[in-house]
TrEMBL record:
Main localisation: membrane
Name the record gives this protein: Channel protein TolC
Organism superkingdom: Bacteria
UniProtKB keywords: Cell outer membrane, Membrane, Signal, Transmembrane, Transmembrane beta strand, Transport
Upper taxonomic lineage: Bacteria, Pseudomonadati, Pseudomonadota, Gammaproteobacteria, Pseudomonadales
Native source species: Pseudomonas fluorescens
InterPro entries (UniProt xref): OMP_efflux (IPR003423), T1SS_OMP_TolC (IPR010130), TolC-like (IPR051906)
Amino acid sequence: MVASAALLGSVLMLAAGAVLAQTEAATPAGVNASTFSTDLMQLYREARLEDPQIVASYAQAKAGQEHQREAMGALLPQLSFSAGSNRIHQESDLVQRSFDSESYGLVLRQYLYNKAAWENYQKFKSLARQSESQALETQAEASVELAQRYFTALAAEDELELVRAERRTTQRSLDRINALYEKQLALITDQLDLKARVDLLTAQELDARNQVSLSREALAEIVGRPVKERLNRIREDLQLQVSANSLETWVRDGMALNPALKANESGVEAAGAALRSGKGGHYPTLSLNLSAQQTNEGYNNSLAPRTDSYVAGIGLQVPLYSGGSTSARVRGLYEDQVVAEQQLEATRRRVVKEITNAYLTANSNGEKIGANRLALESAQLSRVAAEKALSYGMVNSVDVLASVRNEFRARRDLLKTQYDFLSNVLILNRWAGKPPAEGIENVNGWLSSGSVGQDFR
């Protein structure tokens, strides 16, 4: 009985090992296949919380708001309290005494006119808006980066399946040639050509498997965890096309909504306020001063009855000469304003260029997808005909290899064009100032949970 149990255990272990070996052979190295799937929108939600660039942009926007509040504080009343206690010892020819004195003071100061402080507040107000716009720009850029890495991962899986499918197809042709060669109906050169191609595809499969692992790591860098789920793929039942809006409409939206452009506009406003604040160094300041004091210390540190004093006054400060530093600072701030204005103009031109490029490329890709589908159908028919002709000895292995390569080249071109189309749609939405979540959600609607290689043969 014990021997039977041991034998049964050994058989089960061998069976489990065989199943595990088959699973490892079917799964790309470094990628754990899962029955669960994820889509672009789910990864986008995770990236909003985990991508260091996005988290840092949130913190930067919040810091800008606090700096604005800090600058505003200089315009509000400044209230301070002071207290002191002294031990005084006095000696003279007539008397020698020691006593304690106490004093308490309350001072309120409010600027009535301070151009430099007011313009400084305006500067930080503009900088706060700039940091908010920069945060939106960072989120938009990060969403495009996530989508491109997502499509890169899909393309890597496609490439692996394409190489495997091409190897299987070439292997079938090699098997036919081997059978014909045994009957002396085929040339050794045909057999060697096909064998060399199979070996080359086997080597390419190893590289493609590595690219799958690398592309998954690139996704993990953004979302902050290993991405092991199956990725939703492009649906085949859709006609991919850009919206019906004209190029002029997209450019007009970009000029009004693009966050990078808004950030530069706020930068110009901040530079103008900084220049006015610098010029404020030439202006006088006027302040209201109120103070209250209580002490029992009199003239020359003498003991006196407790005295309460209340003072109200107006203070005027007029700058006369500061060694030329104020004028130099103003000249420097003027040049900073010129820099900000030129950066704004450069951003305007880039927005127009990026929108135009993405719009034209996306439209071109949409038209190219249809042409690539027709090319794939023709290449499939050509490959099937070449394989049949090879069986009858009407063509050689070179012709078959060429037809197989043409078919899989057409598959690669179709898949690449689809991914390029989706990437350019997201780029177009980004530069037109559309909310990142809206663009991701629209593209995500074109994806489904189909398995990789479902249409490969």
